[in-house]
Amino acid sequence: MAGQSNLSDDSLRHCQHTRTRCDRGYRRRTLLQSWRMPAFGLGFSCLGRLLLSESAVAEESKHAAARSCILIWLDGGPSHLETFDLKPQAPAEVRGPLEAISTSVPGIQISECLPLTAARMDRLAIIRSMTSPLGEHNLGTHYLLTGYRPTPVLDYPAFLSVADQMMPPSETVLPRHIAVPDDRVGGSDFSFRGFLPSQVAPFSLEADPARADFRVRDLSLPDDLSSAGLDRRRRFSDQLAAWHRQNHSTSPSAGSTPDAVQRAFDLVTSVEAGNAFELNEESPETRRRYGNRSVGQSCLLARRLIERGVRFVTVNYRGWDTHQDLYTRLKEGFTGAKVGVGLIPSLDLALSALTDDLQDRGLLEETLIVVMGEFGRTPKLNTQGGRDHWPRVFSAVVGGAGIPGGQVIGASDRTGEYPADNPLTPADLIHTIYLLMGLNPTAELETPTGRPVRLTAADSRPIHQLLS
Q1: pLDDT confidence of residue 241
Q2: Most confident of 175-189, 261-275, 410-424
């Protein structure tokens, strides 16, 4: 069983205040160059193994409503005090510049910048007692997305990559997990797949759906490659696959390389795959409802992908590291804006439109929506009109997949500094997500060295209020 590290607060790197993220820098990426095939993480072997007892399968099936999942990742650490856990009775230096408004559920209030979400509160559940000791972007992201505290001994996989590994395949040529506009979350070091094989890494679009020139480059042939040229390469690939099977027939990965190449060919020649990304097929009114910012068009694309059989979509929404100018960045977007186009109003448009469309299409009951970031923000405003990192208590929002909406789980204290009721860890949330997906949280995966690792930490527990 893999252990967890004992990281103290003193070991966390001190961050510098910038307008975007205090520890910028992106990891180098290895791109698939052979035949110019798309780099959507199709690897050479499948190393995971699932150990399920019959009783465990029966237990999970009671809650398994989620066939797919949309993760809206608020990269940088959103302020719980300006979004889903406002403190209108707290001192001015704590309560901040935004007001609380009532929602469609009596007794639940959220930010004034979330009026559309407030009207749909009956479909969503707020967790207000999330807690973590990790207040640095990379470390916090790892904990939130894997359910394990980071350790130098092992690179744990994100819950979506684990689900990709273990859930049944979907009937689509599209990749099972797609990251929009990209998968660069948490600073510089996070890898979604962790120790799992490369085929469960997300297909990162590397393109913003809100841009007029939006195009997924890996879904079309290079200008200098004709259909005849592609056919020649496919025939060569078939010959290579036959050789591979003949010479590696006893290997556990005997079929994985040819299968990966075949899926790559299918993807670039598929009309279905190309059409999935054609946002212009949507009406102008639909696109307006989602908002014209990146998060809105990314959520619209997420809905289109889920409709077409994609299992998992990560919407990477950056900008939440609000050490400075919190009011402007969260509400207005820019100084003097006549209509708020800041981070929170843009999220409001996207989340409300997404839940509406999934509901109208009969997809909400089988699609899990998770909205969260790596931590919250400090209770006290700093001298630059912002809030700094604060992992001790923060909020997450979930909906769909049969989750009872219109509820608040846990509570923070009067200043939003510490949990006051029912403290819940990232491991608890991931444990619950696996149950909603029909996966056994106590099952084991196997590392490349043969080491068994539980899906969730041994001390994790389900959040029963989310299980209908």
Answers
A1: 65
A2: 410-424
The residues with which 125 forms a beta bridge, in sequence order, are 398, 407
The mean pLDDT of the chain is: 85
More confident residue, 266 or 443: 443
**Cα-based distances in Å from 89 to 94, 96, 97, 111, 230:** 9, 11, 13, 14, 66
CA gap 26, 51 in Å, rounded: 36
> Each residue of 381-428: pLDDT tens digit?
999 999 999 999 999 999 999 999 999 999 999 999 999 999 999 999
Neighbouring residues of 194: CB distance < 8 A, sequence distance ≥ 6: 146, 154, 155, 156, 157, 158, 161
What is the distance between the alpha carbons of residues 301 and 210, in angstroms, rounded to a whole number? 10
In this predicted structure, the answer to whether residue 216 has a pLDDT above a threshold of 80 is yes
Report pLDDT digits (tens) over 295-334: 999 999 999 999 999 999 999 999 999 999 999 999 988 8
Predicted pLDDT at 41: 33
Q: How remote is the C-alpha of 115 from its chain's centroid?
A: 23
Whether the bond into 252 is cis, omega within 30 of 0: no
CA gap 121, 352 in Å, rounded: 10
Instruction: Print the SS3 string covering the chain.
Output: CCCCCCCCHHHCCCCCCCCCCCCCCCCCCCCCCHHHCCCCCCCCCCCCCCCCCHHHHHHHHCCCCCCEEEEEEEECCCCCCCCCCCCCCCCHHHHCCCCEEECCCCCCEEECCCHHHHCCHHHEEEEEEECCCCCCHHHHHHHHHHCCCCECCECCCCHHHHHHHHCCCCCCCCCCEEEECCCCCCCCCCCCCCCCCHHHCCEECCCCCCCCCCCCHHHCCCCCCCHHHHHHHHHHHHHHHHHHHHHCCCCCCCCHHHHHHHHHHHHHCCHHHHHHCCHHHCCHHHHHHHCCCHHHHHHHHHHHHHHCCCCEEEEEEECCCCCCCHHHHHHHCCCCCCCCCCHHHHHHHHHHHHHHHHHHCCCHHHEEEEEECCCEECCCCCCCCCCCEECCCEEEEEEECCCCCCEEECEECCCCCCEEECCECHHHHHHHHHHHCCCCCCCEEECCCCCEEECCCCCCCCCHHHCC
CB atoms closer than 10 angstroms to residue 91: 11
Percent of the chain topping pLDDT 90 = 69
The rounded Cα 437 to chain-centroid distance in angstroms is: 15
